TrEMBL record:
Keyword hit for Membrane: yes
Keywords, alphabetical: Membrane, Transmembrane, Transmembrane helix
Taxonomic path: Bacteria, Bacillati, Bacillota, Bacilli, Lactobacillales
InterPro entries according to UniProt: EpsG-like
Gene source species: Enterococcus canintestini
Name of the protein in question: EpsG family protein
Pfam families: EpsG
Transmembrane segments annotated in the record for this chain: 6-23, 43-64, 122-140, 152-185, 191-214, 226-245, 265-284, 296-316, 322-339, 346-366
Amino acid sequence: MESLMLYLTIFLVTLCILILEDLSYKYAFDNNNQNIKFYHRKFYINGILKKSIFFLLAFFPLIVLSGQRFFVGTDYGNYLAIYKQIGEMNLRELIDKSKYLEPLYVFFNKISYILSNGNEKAIFYSSALLIFLILYLTLLKMKEKFKISLTLGTYIFLFFFFPLTLNIIRQMIAIVFVLYAFLFLLEKKSLAFLTLIFFASGFHNSAIILFPLVALNFIRENKYKYLFFLILLSPMFVASVLELLPSINLFSRYLAKYSIQRNSISIFDVIEASFFLIPIFLNRKKILKVFPESKPLFLISLLIIPIVVVSSYQFWFSRMSYFIFILMIYFFPVIVKVQKDKKSKLLWEIFFLSYFFVYFILKFYIVGTEGIFPYSTLHFVI
C-alpha cells in the first residue's frame, strides 16, 4: 500500500503542476486577431524558459522516481547489464554491438556512461528524461494546435504507460517518438514523419513496421473505405508475413526472446482494445467536424483489431499494440474538447479518469504486471 501511495502522490504532484500550466494558457489573449493565444501575457516570462520551468516542476519527481529505483520493473537487471557492458566498449566494439542491438540505444548508453562517469543510475535517469521530454514536447504541440488539455493527456500516460517506462524502456522511448511522428502525419509532413519513425526504430526496431503509414498522406480520402476493409481482413494474410520475420536479422533476436505461443484471444486484450476504440468511434463525427485532419488516425487506430487477433497466437506481437494505444493521448482529450455542452465534457472526463485509475490499480497493483510493486531503492523498500 505504501508503494501505491508513493506512485499516486507523485502522479498527483505532476498533474497539479500541469493543471496550473493549463490554466495559465486558458485566458491567453492575442490583441492582433482576438484569438486565444498559447501564452498568457500576464504569466509570460519567455517561451522556452516558461516551458522549462513547468517541465522541471512537473516531471522532475517522475524522473527521480524512475532513476532511483532498484530492481523495480521486470527488465531492470537486463538494462543495467547492457549499460555496464556498453560502457566499457571502445568505438569498434560499439559498432559491432550496433549490429545486434539498436544503434541509437547503444550510443545513448555510452553517452550516459561517459557523462555520469559510469554511475549505474545514469541510464535510468537519462531514459526517463528523454521519455518525458519528448512526451512533454508532444503535448505542447497538441496544446498549441488543438487547444486540448495537457493534464488529461499526461494523466492517461501516467496510469497506462508509466509502468511500462520502468520495464520496456527501449520501446517506450520509441513510442513517444512515434506519438510525435503521428502529429507530422496529420500535417502531411511525410519527411518529418519518416525521420521520426526512423529515429524511433533506432531505439526499438519494431517501430520500423510503421513506415508504410506514410502512404496515408498520398491516398485520397475517398479511398479510405477500402483501407478500412483491408485492415479488418488483414489477420487473414498477416500470418504468412510473420512466418518470414524470423529469417530477417532485424527481427530474429527479438522474436527469439518473445516466442511464447498462445491458443486463444486474451479477454484482457479485447477489453483494452474495446475501451480504446469505442470512445473514439462514438465521437467520430464530432471529431472530424472540428478536426477533419484526424481522419488518418482513425484508420491507424483500427490496426488494434488485427494486432489483438494476431496476438492470440503470436504473443510477442501484442507489444505492437502500444504503438497504437499511444493515440489515446491524442484522441481522448480531443473527445472532451469536441463536446458541445459542459455536462457531456464532464461525463467523458469522469469516464476517462475513472477507467485509467481502475486500470492502473487492477493491472499493475493487484495483478502485478510489469513488476513495479513494491517500489524500492538501494537503501529501502516501500
